[in-house]
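Supplementary Methods S3. Input chains for the assembly prediction are listed below.
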Amino acid sequence: MATTARSRDLLCRLRRTGQQESGMTASVGEEVMLARAYLTRVAEPPALALHAFVDVVGPVEAADRVRRGEVPEAVLHETEARREFDLAGADLAAAEKMGGRLVVPEDPDWPAWQLLCLAPPTDRGLRGSGQPLGLWVRGTAEVANLFDRAVSVVGARTATPYGEYVATELGHQLIQAGMTVVSGAAYGIDAAAHRGAIVGGGPTVAVLACGIDIAYPAPHGSLIDRIAAAGLIVSEYAPGVTPARHRFLVRNRLIAALSSATVVVEAGDRSGARNTATTAAALGKVVMAVPGPITSKMSVGCHDLLRTGGAVVAGSIAEIIEAAGPVGANLDPAPERPKRDTDGLGDQALRVHDALNLGKHKYPEQVAVDSGIPLDRVRTLLIELEITGHAERGDEGWRKLKGGARHV
Amino acid sequence: MATTARSRDLLCRLRRTGQQESGMTASVGEEVMLARAYLTRVAEPPALALHAFVDVVGPVEAADRVRRGEVPEAVLHETEARREFDLAGADLAAAEKMGGRLVVPEDPDWPAWQLLCLAPPTDRGLRGSGQPLGLWVRGTAEVANLFDRAVSVVGARTATPYGEYVATELGHQLIQAGMTVVSGAAYGIDAAAHRGAIVGGGPTVAVLACGIDIAYPAPHGSLIDRIAAAGLIVSEYAPGVTPARHRFLVRNRLIAALSSATVVVEAGDRSGARNTATTAAALGKVVMAVPGPITSKMSVGCHDLLRTGGAVVAGSIAEIIEAAGPVGANLDPAPERPKRDTDGLGDQALRVHDALNLGKHKYPEQVAVDSGIPLDRVRTLLIELEITGHAERGDEGWRKLKGGARHV
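Predicted structure tokens for the full assembly:
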């Protein structure tokens, strides 16, 4: 494997930086880093055959043989078009220049168990299953443990104020609950979720469908920088790779995989968020949809997911946090229902109580008529109601009291 | 059975009126009418033992024996308190005075199959199962077939503008679809559904928890009159009976039973509408809940019903009408999804298409690099895209076309 002295030097600096910044051990060799950097650019993700090939021969030999075209037919098919472009050193340098780095499966911080759900063999028929060959990241957050309790918040670009409010609040409260927010970097729900999370102090993660050096959409350049400052920008695409429609679909599987739960806040009839939800469900993740007004086109996708069983109801932010947390970690006590004074009363006692007035007294005979309960029973029940503070006896018969049961 | 000459005379007039108004045959004898009128007042609904007793000995003998107290223990318990109040003639007269009448099971118009779901024996543990002994009604609608395609619309009294909008629109569109609207007469959702139905020309039905001569809540007096003018006021309580809390729960079973589907539009955490929904589900009816903003307390009840499986999602009014109609009667074609030009393209063709520009041309070699697809395959795909109108060849290579598939 031919690497220039400059590349080697760069790599050493990168590794030192990584050590200082994240405290990780320098366990990943430079050859592996350069090989992985090359491989992430050479094949369009997801590259199932190449991934399998790397698993067998290791990244360094794989990169070497890909470069020479001495690989099995399926791998050749995935790598043929770009195998002559060896920009590994330049890519690593470009990433470093913006405070970024390449995280590889050999790194102890690699989110291995989260990404395992993407591993082939797959019969899920998912467009875009398959694990990434490496992840380009930039930002202040450490990758280690970042995705242990992560929730992805996805939804419409053309969100309504309602949707943006919910996404912002959700992003914020997830952070308060000690979780990581994951989303894309699109207009609407994605941006709102990040903004809420940033205000909450992060970490929040944007997974891109292009290189980590590209701001897409362009007006979100400063938002993406703020996300990096409060968390992490993640992409399996090498620096400089531009966004494309199929890359968003492929990217969506990473959003789903890196989170234990995916929440769809608003989605139109045809929406990328629904694709993420479907993918998350296929990966066995918790999928929730936030209901909205049926008068809004932006609710159609969420309600479709609810109707078809593709998602469960996210009736409140507290419910989402509970559903997304590790089993048992966030069990709220059942919400207390409002209580009525008469909650403890039996059916007949309630009827007698209903038949009484708060003001004017009634004789038992009248109460029997009004309630339709036999007189003997009425007399017994009136005494019961008196004991529990629900009724009061006077010279002119009986009257109702309010707030009885509370005093007993 | 002692009836005054005045009562007999009144009953003859009632029957004639009934004949003229509804065209029903005069098949219900006057003794039965007076007996049923007496029975509806003497026992507090639901009176399961009395109902069973009437089934065995018939209404006339049952009324006679109840009056004398010569009935089984369970029936005595249900009737003892009021058995001496024989206001049958006066009740029928009071009803007539306001254009009302008593509909009885012996009447061919009796909604027998709808109410059958309330028949004992029941092990459903429902508070308030059991069929009514008769139904006091007033209004212009005929009872015959009125409930054959009926949908109940229930919800919060403290509804939000969103809920009232949905209920009004739903009431209106149910009428347009040839269905009957059923509800209570409360503030909020009930009133909104009726108003929509009234504007649509009716019929709409208010089932009361008090006599048909009582306006409850009082400010709804004129609304109730308008409901009567555009449909029917229904109650199993004799004229003059005042509303009471347990009567609303008992009334709710009639709303559920008389409709093939119950729709909850908005409901707080503790709501009568949820009771109606639970009852409807226990009776085997279709139950739907309209989602709403999770930022609204008035959505809590609906979302709870959705989460617990107590209701299915009512994502649109069209969905409700389809779910509520007789099987197959209202099947809409599946909603058409918005189409993209590229919908027919395979995965690789889409990647090649994505790699092209609308303006600047690209050579196949560059397309192969950008898309990550081998050059040979790219050449084939470009020709495919040209044939389907998605791409155009020029002197400087290839460029993307929009709207291709539509022209093929």
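Chain A has a mean pLDDT of 87. Chain A touches chain B through 56 residues (CB under 8 Å).
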